[in-house]
Amino acid sequence: MRQEDIKVAARPDQRMGFLSGNEMAALAASQINFHVMGYYPITPSTEIAELLSEMQANGEHDIVLIPGDGEHGAAGICYGATTGGGRVFNATSANGLLYALEQLPVQSGTRFPMVLDLVTRSVSGPLDIRGDHSDLYFAIHTGWIVLLARDPQAVYDMNIMAVRIGEDPRVQLPVIVAYDGFFTSHQKRRVHYFAHQDTVQQFIGPVPERITALNPRQPVTIGPYMNDPDLINNKYQLHKAMEAAREVIAEVFAEYAELSGRHYPIVDLYRMEDAEAAVLLLNSAAETAKDVADRLREQGLKVGVISPNILRPFPAEEIRKACRNLKALLIGERGDSYGSGGGPLTHEVKAALKDDPENRTLVLTRIYGLGGKDFYPDDAEAFFKLALEAAETGRVKVRFDYHGVTPGDPNRVPPPGTPVISREEVTGLVSVTQDPETGQLKVKLPPPRQLMERPKRIAPGHGACPGCGIFPAINQFLAALEGDVVVLYQTGCAMVVTTGYPFTAHRITYIHNLFQNGAPTLSGLVEMFFERKRRGEIDVGEDITFVMITGDGGMDIGMGSAIGTALRNHKMIILEYDNEGYMNTGSQLSYSTPIGHRTSTSEVGPHGRGKLFHHKDTPMIMAATNIPYVFTGVEAFPQDLMRKAAKAQWYAKNEGLAYGKVLITCPLNWRSEERLGTAIVEAAVNSCFFPLYEIERGVTTITYNPEEKGKRIPVSEWLKLMGKTRHLLRPENKDLLEEFEREVERRWQRLKARHEHPLL
Amino acid sequence: MPVGVALPVTNEEGFFEIRLESIGGLGANVAGKILAEAGVLYSGLNGSNFASYGSEKKGTPVKSFVRFAAPEKEIRNATPVERPHVLGIFHEALVLSDKSVLSGLYSHSVVVINSRKDPETMREMLGIKVRRLGTVPALDIATETGSRTNMAMLGAITKACEFLSPEGVVEAIRDALGTRYPQMLQGNLEAFWRGYHGVKWHEVTVSEGEAEQPYVRPQPLFGYETATLGGTLVRPGTTWNKDMSASRQGQLPEFLRDKCIDCAQCDLVCPDYCFVWEMGQDKKGRPAMVLKGIDYQYCKGCLKCVEACPVDALVAIPEADGWAPEHRVQQRFSIIATVG
After folding, report:
1. Does A635 contact B269 at a Cβ distance shorter than 8 Å?
2. Phi and psi angles of residue A450, each rounded to the nearest 5 degrees, phi first
């Protein structure tokens, strides 16, 4: 037996475990057994949904897990679910929170409680996936209660208490539980948790009676149109709830301490009794500082650590008390409110102290640890030294500064780049001509051998996994393009592995934007290009082809904006590499994941059979925008793909937007052999799961028909090549396999009909 | 019930610290987790465990950290292990190409390296003077047992952590892998024991402080005075300087020029742009591109090219020491520094 059962008189059984913050969050959620979780994967919060998916496949909870189309959609799912009267959970980080931000005041302003785990991470850009508090600092203005969890144990405890606090009729507000991305989310620690779900259920109790949209016998109008003079009263109610929460939080913390033996004060004060100098830090960094405080105390230095356990409502009174006799306080902030001389913590602490006329504490601020930069004990020591210096001298030398920045050495030489690709090197091998009579395009491609003259537009040395299918596909596509190309990559594997600072694999100009917005971003650049040409600022002879490259994940969260861009028909190309999942964040399901396929959020087990719904037909969605050119391709048919690339370029130059989807192998997450990458996508084509076709000015042509070539294979022949689908071949999943086969066949027959009838 | 054990040595904060240096895909993260679990759940210690985490993909360097403390001591420090008491190196290419993985060793530290070389030879190659250095052919053991590199390494590292009971580690392996991959458990356990018993040690007497390897925190290339505003990179294609050889796991493609017909099918499916072409002549003497060879600096050993080749001009071979640099045909990028 690996767990140690802990029995304390009159307390429910607890077990010892060795778990991370995210594991504790998932464990708490499963014991709370929320009705619904709406979510969208984003590092470092993703694991929570993954773990819950795995637990669900093993029958360990009943939470309905709903993958949103983005964080905004996920927040909508959660909002809708809360109006139905049950318990709702969500987890996000960084730009995920910011993308959902607009929904947060809706949730609090209409007073529907839920719990959101904010696994704090740096807000882009440039894109940084590691932990700081820049996202949290946006969340504190939204009318949600904010609880802080400094270690994996607190993550579990705060999540359970959050339910009670938010649902209390005196509060009725949604609650954020914020903990540090990676430092807490991904670190395993010795922890304790309740052995029985009943313990948690009894503590949280039944959902209190409140307004519900699910009682037709009592019709309600949720979210009416409300201007002045009413809105201010709604907000005053919210303010009063926040104030009432102070009492409720104290009660719940106390009751939980009785139950668990773990007591959380409103503000954690460490060795503060007679402290003269202190640091104030949030979450994990405060823990590091405690060890250092111990050491300094041994040297006779009177130092302590202040660290709030709640941020909303702001514990002003507790902080005032703690600072009563304090000579100097250094506030460390993992986020800045640029230009204001501090992060929000600085301003709120200073405001709190101002209300004590007796207070004489000198306050310093240091911004530290942005983008996940580690906070070492010697960083904490530096903070104490600054506070001690101020305490001793009675003055502050530098009130506000950054800690831990590097000026950089001008003598350090950056790595040499590759030579700039000349226009001549990429001109003259591929030609596209239009038949003046029929309007048909005719593409002339050189043999592949001759194409090898052309420099690749991406340099080697990128960090993709062995056997990654992205790079052959992009290379084949770009190889067929003539002349200068500018690319925009939406967030995803291809972006991350080619641009890890301070290196880039891109030999041509590259732009990144977050994946809900790449298409509009590139369309803005396209229009700037043409306008600057028109104004004579760019030589009229300049000719650039603009290509946006995205994964299938980017075409989920970015679908709306891609459709908008397509409807505006800008002269650009969208190339989607589809690996049937969110591989950059560790293989979560995307809408392009086929039914039954295993991902980390569609787990397989006694109670799970992989993804629940069919794959998205993105080319047909894009075709419905009536753009001039839509195509599909795979690396196994290079001539076909390159011919389509050439056509896409012609349309992007002459008529408008071209879109193409390329199916690519992800050996790591498809659990397939690296060397079989090409064969697997070939099998996908030959099984008619991924037909090769193009839609040119609305007319569909199948460019390779496996039936005519005698190459058609059953879908199962393709599925057996991948570990993620092996379970579909087992007898007990026969019905699921047949359902998938029927859908593949239906789409194939419809495509053939379109091929035969130009009007379809 | 776990039994309390005493840590042989601790740092000034009271921790016994372990650092695992690896390549994504070798399982160092899982090994660290199992090791820490064995200490906390089966040896009665307190502990913590985490990995260096970025968006690193399979095949790029990763680190895993384990911190042990006496059961009553709270663990608050969440920062990476800089001065390990035990250092495990999962791929010898890591240490041979970048000595900084050895950074922070004490004289009394123990180093365990996945290598076929005997520990004396390895010590000479590295020029380090720590008390104990062990080598274990973890990749061979993995291949022979149908396991992964991490299990044999875990065995050897457990041996290095004398205070941990190997049976406790076995229990932790069962917990971690038993339910998820039951069919692999037998092979994993065999690999663990072979690593545990098969690690070869080389010991020297060193006085305290004599062989210290001070830890050097890596400094960023650019700082706020030297970085372009907004983070824009102004030199194109700089990743060509990177060496991806450590991504290979035992196999690589050999190019047989005699059989090649220059059809370029290999190049079209290569994810890593390893194939080197040059203007030459075709069979009829006309100017044409000719495949010269493979730049193994970038080859990650996926072997897609071997599958794509219609004429067996590319074959998969086990990678022998020094073979790749010897047979490498270099991609020729002019190293003229471009703008900036």
Report:
1. yes
2. -70, -30
Taking the C-alpha atoms of residue B13 and residue A756, their distance in angstroms, rounded to an integer, is 76
Model confidence pLDDT, tens digit, residues A150-172: 999 999 999 999 999 999 999 99
Q: For an interface test with A, which of B82, B167, B304, B305 has the most A Cβ atoms less than 10 Å from its Cβ?
A: B304
Over 70: is that where the pLDDT of A28 sits? yes
Residues 26-85, chain A: which have Cβ within 8 Å of B? 43-44
Please give the model's pTM, rounded to 2 decimal places: 0.96
- On whether both B198 and B251 belong to a single domain, the answer is no
Q: Residue B223 and residue A508: Cβ atoms within 8 Å?
A: no
Are both B150 and B55 inside the same structural domain?
yes
pLDDT reported for residue A6: 54
B4 within some domain:
no
Q: How far is B242 from chain A (nearest CA, A)?
A: 5
Place of tokens 């039994």: B3
- Asked if the Cβ–Cβ distance from B47 to A453 is below 8 Å, we say no
- Among the partner-chain residues B175, B239, B300, the one whose CB lies closest to the CB of A459 is B239
Q: How high is the ipTM of this complex?
A: 0.95
Mean pLDDT over A433-458 rounds to 97
Q: Give the per-residue pLDDT at B56.
A: 59
Residue range A267-402, CATH number: 3.40.50.920
Whether residues B237 and A291 touch (CB distance < 8 A) is answered with: no
Chain A interface test: which of B45, B55, B332 (most A C-beta within 10 Å) = B55
Do B70 and B165 lie in a common domain?
yes
Minimal Cβ distance to A419: which of B1, B233, B333: B333
Domain co-membership, B70 together with B145 = yes
pLDDT of residue A345: 98
Residues B283 and B184 in one domain: no
Return the CATH class of domain A455-756: alpha beta
Mean pLDDT, chain A, as a whole number?
97
For chain B, the three-class secondary structure string (H helix, E strand, C coil) is: CCCCCCCCCCCCCCCEEEEEEEECCCCHHHHHHHHHHHHHHHCCCEEEEEECCCCCCCCCEEEEEEEEECCCCCCCCCCCCCCCCEEEECCHHHHHHCHHHHCCCCCCCEEEEECCCCHHHHHHHHCCCCCEEEEECHHHHHHHHCCCHHHHHHHHHHHHCCCCCHHHHHHHHHHHHHCCCHHHHHHHHHHHHHHHHHCEEEECCCCCCCCCCCCCCCCCCCCCCCCCHHHCCCCCCHHHHCCCHHHCCCEEEEECHHHCCCCCHHHHHCCCCCEEEEEEECCCCCEEEEEEEECCCCCCCCCHHHHHCCCCCEEEEECCCCHHHHHCCCCCCCCCCCCC
Same domain, B156 and B65: yes
For residue A348, what pLDDT is reported?
Answer: 98
Domain boundaries, chain A: 5-207+228-260, 267-402, 455-756
CB pairs under 8 A between A and B: 296
pLDDT band at residue A4 under the 50/70/90 scheme = very low
**Nearest-CA distance B124 → chain A (Å):** 30
Q: Are A408 and B223 in contact (CB < 8 Å)?
A: yes
Q: Examine residue B125 and state whether it is found in any structural domain, yes or no.
A: yes
Note the pLDDT of residue B336.
Answer: 47
Closest in A16, A414, A450 to B235, CB measured = A414
Contact A18 B221 (CB under 8 A): no
Which of B238, B265, B267 lies at the smallest CB-CB distance from A503? B238
Residues of B in contact with A154 (CB under 8 A): none
pLDDT tens-digit profile of A201-245? 999 999 999 999 999 999 999 999 999 999 999 999 999 999 999
Q: What domain count does chain B have? A: 2
**What is the per-residue pLDDT across A520-556, written as a single tens digit (0 to 9) for each?**
999 999 999 999 999 999 999 999 999 999 999 999 9
